[in-house]
Amino acid sequence: MPKSLILMLFFSSLIFGQVTSETKYFKDKYGRTEVEIGPYMLEIKEINDSVTTHVFTKVKKNQKIWTKSYLREQPYGIWTRYDKKGAIESTRDYNFILKYGEFIPENAIKYYELDTSIESDVNNKIIQQHISKNFRYPEIAQENGTQGKVTVQFTVDENGKIDNLRILEGTDIALDTECFTIMNSLKELEPYTKGGKKVLVYKTMPITFKLQ
Hints:
disordered N terminus; four-stranded mixed β-sheet; elongated; 2 domains; TolA/TonB C-terminal domain; alpha+beta
């Protein structure tokens, strides 16, 4: 292979493998007030055309506060928050792609066709407890005063496994993502029955975001 071609290929790999980055400074630990030089730093790295990573640190102590990734505007990957000693304080899993629009499997029974009342359905209590435990109002939605109702759809199969999770009616990408995150972390429920047999059930549920 000619040397010129080898050099050209090497140079091309450097260009396409290059990660671009941007640094911003803030005077508050919430990253709300941007300044030219401040005690907190946000480093944004563009991994490719779609994915960026965000690392927020306290400059003086080089203390990492949190790390986040985005797939375009949507939260992506594992978000991590650190304590003052640098240990992981909490994580949030965004390893999914938001899906919109109704999808009902051919063999699924709609929830209202069951011989079950909403009041006696143990799964409704499980879901409500799960939402209460895991609910977190997105910071950006709070800052923008965004409120609304998001309706999610999902199926519960004969073993109680949750699948076909989608946003039936969305309101804002931050709120949509939070609803998807909550329901995506709820892996299974009690199986539903109809006529004494376990069945695949299609169910919808609204989740309301309201600022106090």
